[in-house]
Each structure stands twice: as structure tokens, then as C-alpha cells.
Structure of ABC transporter ATP-binding protein:
Amino acid sequence: MFPLKVTDLRWRVAGRAVLDGLSLELGGDGITILLGPNGAGKSVLLRSLCGLIEPESGHIDFGGGPRPESGVAMVFQQPKMLRDSLLGNVELALRPLGVAAAERRSRAQAVLERVGLAHRATDSARGLSGGERQRLALARAWVTRPRLLLLDEPTASLDPSSVEAIERIVREIRTEGTRILMTTHNLGQATRLADDVVFMDAGRVCEHAPVQRFFARPASQAARLYIQGELPWRMAF
Ligand SMILES: Nc1ncnc2c1ncn2[C@@H]1O[C@H](COP(=O)(O)OP(=O)(O)OP(=O)(O)O)[C@@H](O)[C@H]1O
């Protein structure tokens, strides 16, 4: 599946370019944090990578071929839960992969353990808090053992301890060999998690750099302004 090469991707809505000739290359390891202002096209890029949006032109090449049938998973900012138990939600993710019922159950139980939700396994998923829902959404993706995991602002509007729990899970998923591409507006989180940063503006990649270099010496004016704009609170303390 890697290197993942995106070339000159274009997608318009009502004549306005949302992806405007976007190109990007990702190697097979690590966590890439996708930064950029609201409306830059980050979510649209993630949706294009998992096949939910078909760009008008351009090319996405997964290690020399088309997108594989399985191996790419995505977690949305506001994941939808089935009206079922946590176990049921996780097991369902394995059905399309042809995993036998007994193995579906054991893998679902194991992954719920790892995200700290085993004690809620038979509860209704609809009754979970925001942080618990995100952990369940990560479990549903993780249980399929994706090679590439796309995370769209998985900690937006979560409290600090829920954010910490999600970050721990994301690191564990990465340690087990899953490539992660994740959006966030939390720059502290970006510095904690990222190996490298892709900065997008107006439907294009402006910059792709190792995390330390990106924050110490952003190469583009757009990235400098974004970093300054997102960090006013630092000046206050
Ligand atoms: N399905 C859609 N139909 C019409 N317009 C869309 C659709 N999806 C996204 N857009 C538009 O494309 C632009 C980019 O949206 P996108 O959600 O990718 O931005 P983003 O960089 O993820 O922003 P944010 O940081 O606010 O989440 C926005 O103007 C959005 O309104």
C-alpha cells in the first residue's frame, strides 16, 4: 500500500476548488498530522483516500496500485454508533472481512479491553459519553487491523483526560504497524504525536516536514500565521 502517492487531486463544489491540485507522498510508517485552517480541505482529502469522495481528476496510488479492498479505515469526528452493544458494534466491523463468528467475538473483546471499554461491552453504544464513543470508534477501526488509519479530529471537544486516553490508543495502534494520518487543530497534540506534519491551505499541500522542523521553522507564510493564530494562549502564561 506504500508509498502512498497522491498526484494533482482536484475536487470542486459549486465551481469552487476544495482540492486544488493537491499532491502528497506518504511512506509506510509513523504518524502524520494534517494541519491547516478551517475549510482547507483536510477532511475532503481523508475522504478521498478512503474512497468516500471521488475526485474529479488526479491520481491516488497505493504502493503502485489502486486502493486495496480492505486495509484502509477511517474514524470520523462524530462517529455514528449502531443501536447495539459495544461488542455488537465492534463485531460488525469484521463481518465484511469474512471473519468467523467466534473469532469476531474474541477479537472484539480483546480490542475493547485495549481501549478500556471491556467493562461496558454489553452496554448500549448509544449511551456512551463523547470520549467513550471515540474510543469505541477507534476500537471498531483497530479491530480490522488496517494498514492505513485516517483520523478526522478524533479529540475535538473532548476533555483533557479523554484526549490523553485517545492519544495513548493512537500511539499503540501505530506501534502495531498501522500507518496513521490524522487531522487536529490541537498543536500540543501535534507535537506529542507527529513524526511529520503536512500543512494544507486552500486545497493544496503547502508544506510537508518533520515535526520539529515544521514548528521551529515553518517554511510557508500560511503555516507561520496558522501556528501564531492557534497559539495565542501561550502568550498569556
Ligand atoms: N460533501 C460536501 N459538499 C459540499 N461541500 C463540501 C463537502 N465536503 C466539504 N465541503 C466543503 O469543502 C471545504 C473543505 O472542507 P473540509 O471539511 O475538508 O475542511 P477542513 O480542512 O477539514 O476544515 P475543518 O478544520 O473546519 O474541519 C469546505 O468549504 C466545505 O464546506
